[in-house]
Amino acid sequence: MIIRLTKRVILKTISKDLGSVLRENDGEAKGIKMLILVAIWFVVIKSSVMAKRVITKIGDVFSVKIGENNKKYFQLIAFDLAQLNSDVIRAFKKVYSTNENPDLSEIVNGEVEFYAHCVTNFGVKMSLWEKVGSTSEIGNITHILFRNTNDYGSKIEEEPIKVSEKWYVWHINDEKFTRVGKLTGENRKAYIGLVINPLGIIELLKGNKYPPFYPDFE
Questions:
Q1: CA neighbor of 34 nearest in space, from 43, 21, 25
Q2: Residue 9 in this model has a pLDDT that exceeds 70
Q3: CA distance 110 to 99
Q4: DSSP category for residue 186
Q5: Is 2's pLDDT higher than 50?
Q6: pLDDT(127) > 70
Q7: What is the DSSP letter of 159?
Q8: In which element (H, E) is residue 179 found?
Q9: What is the DSSP string of 164-185?
Q10: What is the Rg, in whole angstroms, of the alpha carbon atoms belonging to the chain?
Q11: Are 118 and 195 in contact (CB under 8 A)?
Q12: pLDDT tens-digit profile of 172-191?
């Protein structure tokens, strides 16, 4: 129990530090600090992930604390074979008090803030979110469009590319990506298609940009 609580405290501290780093203006220092935090994160979760087996399934709804008194919800809605068979979630915009316990129907019929890829059971194992129920109401997934670019990622001493014109897009379980170059029209509404780590999902739920150095399209 003591070990479990210690891991939880460490992970919460990393999450707070990550939020602080994301607000820094010094790009080089920010990059180094991000690498350190992510390295610590991997060390901590390695033992947690191996310690217990957690199975999540389509329809599961999760509660995530985004502050001392607030929480948000998201739902696992698909597995995307086009992106490593990772989980696809839809995150809901409404912020609830930690004392509120809304019905699942109310939650899943709320406004969707974003869609993302992640590994939902990692977040459960890390005690970053918890499952509150499951429902067959997952909405229409055929219209969801994701985007990615080969311009993402650089060495520490290199300046990250801020605007990319090398985009490709896809729908969930597409057989192949569609390379479009510059994003135009409906493609501009596509969501970032990277597989996001649990701490990154929390940053998105808080309204922060993640990943911090991911290129824009304009």
A1: 21
A2: no
A3: 18
A4: G
A5: no
A6: yes
A7: P
A8: strand 178-181
A9: -S-EEEEETT-SS-EEEES--G
A10: 18
A11: yes
A12: 999 999 999 999 999 999 99
